[in-house]
Write the structure tokens for this entry.
Amino acid sequence: MAMVPLFFTRVTSLDVIAHEIGHGVCQHTANLAKIITNPEPDALNEGLSDIWGAVIENWAALPNKQTWEIGENIMADGYPCLRSLQNPRTGGDPSTSPTGGYPDTYLGQFWYSANNVVDGNTLDAFAHTNLTVLSHWFYLLSVGGNGWNNGQTSNAPAGSGFQWNVNGIGITEAASIVWEAESDHLIQSSTNYAAIRTNMISAAQNLFGVGSCEEIAVTNAWYAVGVGAVYSGNAGLTISGDASFCTTSKPYTIPNLPIGATVTWQVTPAGIATPGTPNLTQTTLTKSSDGIITLTATISNICGSPIVITKQLIYVGIPAAPTSISALTTIQDIDMLVDGGNIPSNVSSYNWYKNNVMVPNQHTYECDILVNCGVNYLIAVQAVNTCGTSPQFSKLEKAPCGGGYVISPNPASGMVTVSTAAANQLQSKTESTTQKQIYQIKVLGQDGNVLKVFTYSSGVNSTQINLSNLLNGTYILQIYDNVSWSSQQIVILK
């Protein structure tokens, strides 16, 4: 039972009786434990009972009652009350605390250390001293306030420690949050101060919504008494809905919207989709054209400034056509690339075309196309997603001829001579007239796999390579001159 002063006028005041009944309620709900090695649950048990004492006294509205004082009508030793929820450090009876007072901050001044808890008596001292951090949190949640916490007290001089501010929500709503946490078993038998903070935030979210004034006040009141961080961010509110839609309309919602909040929806850029049902928790976007949009929701009529959240890169309809492709050309190969790199999230694949014929097995943002040198090719690409295909983007490309090498014979059946060509034999006028040497030759199949490699560390002007074990077909010789690669086609025919 509670530690008491030496002299009372009586022990039947309403708040004291409600305090003791609160223990019975806790026993059949949270059932907070009395454990020497984990004393905080017992302190929370006492704190909840002081909270219910204040709540019942406030409900009764009897004359000469002080809601935020426990035992104010039974004191006989000159102190105004047994404990104060409003001013724990200075408002209660210090003779009832082994530390000479009651803390208003977790681990702050007058906190009874858990290191001192070794038996039932010291556990009782811990519980009946450190309960006031919880009860003072409840006072701040109900009434509100502002100040500074220097780690010892939430009533520190301005400029010392951290500043806090709590917008009170009233004792009725505050009590409903505590009851939700206690009766719905959010609070467990081993709950400590850190855990009960999470429990109270969850209870506020359950009753009033994520990001509600009540959740913000709960969080900031805990911050004021030194448990946890200040409320920040957009409360985890997000816009829920698909990242793309093909049809004429699609709904988007904000789950767990705080009670009483209104929403203004906006779509940018204009002309692609239009939001409907303004100022509600859900909007339906109506498609006007294909494109990419950002959906913005401005949430008002909740605690503090409006909250703005966005859902970016919503793809409406078929993907936009690529606007640019680049080419890396060699004698027998064009390596095409959609500018911008990797596939955007609204594109599942690409289709590539050579002279209006789809290139098989080439559906990424990069395509390797085999061609004949000196011939113009119309290369086209289109983006694909579940809604359909984009218009094609096309470009003329030509692979250069020559490369400054002579391959003989071609077609071949076995031995092949590869040599540098004289300057007047170069097939392309754009080729350099500088004599080249051969440092490496790679033989590639049509699938791009390397089948043979011939290396010449000092460089040669002419060499023979044995291709007799290759099957009939067309192959690519890639020739390295110690600076760059050239590619030429060779046919094996036996």
User: Anything to note?
Assistant: The first helix runs from residue 14 to 27.
